[in-house]
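Long-time lurker, first post. I've been practising inverse folding by hand and with some scripts of my own, and I keep getting stuck on stretches where the structure tokens seem ambiguous. Below is the full token string for one chain I'm working on. Before anyone asks, I'm not after the true native sequence, just a reasonable design that respects the backbone. If someone could post their per-position residues I'd love to compare against what I wrote down in my notebook.
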């Protein structure tokens, strides 16, 4: 089969890591007998500074006409914070109903976790984050701004429909993995939203009697995740808590260079979007120092999302194999620059036995 991929390299290190990831995808396509047709979309800071607009309606429609989206990162010191991130990434997540954010937290051999006791054997979990609601809907009001009597009201919205999508995806994934699901929330304090999440988990759990489920408060999660990651298989959580604990997860798994993510539309009504967790890293942009592993692992999630499971597993294994050699390779001129690593990953995709 042929898959149409929309490619948005974006800003800073985004285009380089995306190109490296695409090499891995193309090697996988060759090996597993499918075809990938890519369309590059020139979006991000340059486009915005040139045109004054972040994402035109016809561009969005053109992106929609693809099977999946690979995104590098956006963000640029010349553009006020939030304009590109909200105007492009959040806009695409909402427009394409990408209700489920998938964040694997896996420590690959050879990658060092800053947390003592975390090993590849005990660190392999997936955070599933509801991607459109909670406090991030943006609604609210601000009175007496800037003054001593200022009051800000920030609304949080949770619907059973979006919560169901995230929870159901979590149970499906847990069934394919180790059969354990943990709800992470703050039901003792956020009683209304908490009640809704608990109700949805209880309802969906009835359809998955083979999956065990339990509950951990979001604050307690900040201790358990680094100290005992092996206790978790699939963690489902709301938008705010998911943002925070998946960054904690990125640290536990060895940093932004290896943290992959997906914004997934579980209904297939529009393309899902696959992107590393990191941003455009202006501090190292253009230097060739960016680790493309996070982007390549996101591309592996993309292949899984397209139904190419063998290709996905092989691309992940290729990235893991290259990561395992990295400490020996690291350093200027030692073949650890972004595009060289991309070539190595692609070579490994062609040859590795999985
Ligand atoms: P960042 O993730 O771009 O960088 C944080 C630190 O990690 C930097 O020191 C950077 O050099 C390092 N780093 C990031 N990715 C790396 C990689 N692949 N290999 C090696 N080192 C890596 O976050 P920061 O600096 O807070 O944000 C920079 C810009 O990116 C901002 O405009 C921000 O709004 C935007 N951003 C965009 C995101 C996206 O496109 N999804 C996500 C996060 C931030
Ligand atoms: Mg975040």
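-- Answer (accepted) --
I ran through it position by position. Result:
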């Amino acid at each position: 089969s042929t898959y149409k991929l929309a490619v948005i390299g974006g800003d800073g290190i985004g285009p380089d890591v995306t190109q490296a990831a695409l090499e891995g995808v193309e090697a996988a396509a060759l090996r597993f007998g499918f075809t990938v047709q890519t369309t590059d979309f020139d979006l991000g800071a340059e486009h915005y500074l040139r045109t004054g607009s972040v994402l035109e309606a016809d561009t969005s429609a053109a992106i929609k006409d693809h099977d999946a989206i690979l995104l590098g990162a956006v963000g640029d010191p010349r553009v006020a914070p939030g304009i590109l991130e909200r105007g492009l990434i959040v806009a695409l997540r909402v427009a394409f109903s990408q209700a489920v954010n998938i964040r694997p937290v896996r420590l690959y051999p050879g990658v060092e976790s800053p947390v003592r006791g975390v090993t590849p054997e005990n660190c392999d979990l997936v955070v599933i984050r509801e991607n459109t609601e909670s406090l991030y809907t943006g609604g609210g009001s601000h009175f007496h701004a800037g003054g001593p009597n200022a009051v800000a009201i920030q609304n949080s919205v949770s619907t059973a429909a979006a919560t169901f999508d995230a929870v159901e995806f979590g149970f499906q994934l847990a069934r394919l993995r180790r059969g354990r699901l943990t709800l992470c929330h703050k039901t003792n304090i956020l009683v209304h939203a908490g009640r809704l999440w608990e109700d949805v988990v209880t309802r969906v759990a009835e359809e998955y009697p083979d999956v065990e489920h339990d509950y951990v408060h979001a604050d307690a999660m900040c201790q358990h995740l680094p100290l005992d990651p092996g206790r978790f298989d699939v963690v489902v959580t709301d938008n705010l808590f998911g943002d925070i604990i998946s960054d904690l997860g990125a640290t536990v798994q060895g940093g932004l260079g290896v943290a992959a993510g997906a914004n997934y539309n579980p209904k297939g009504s529009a393309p899902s979007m696959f992107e590393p967790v990191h941003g455009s890293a202006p501090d190292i942009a253009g230097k060739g120092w960016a680790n493309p592993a996070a982007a390549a692992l996101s591309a592996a999630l993309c292949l899984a999302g397209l139904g190419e499971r063998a290709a996905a597993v092989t691309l992940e294994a290729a990235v893991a194999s290259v990561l395992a050699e990295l400490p020996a390779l690291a350093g200027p001129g030692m073949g650890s620059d972004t595009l060289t690593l991309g070539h190595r990953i692609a070579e490994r995709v062609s040859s590795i036995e999985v």
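A couple of notes from the structure itself: The longest strand covers residues 2-10. The chain has two domains: 1-106+255-354, 113-141+150-253. Happy to go over any region you disagree with.
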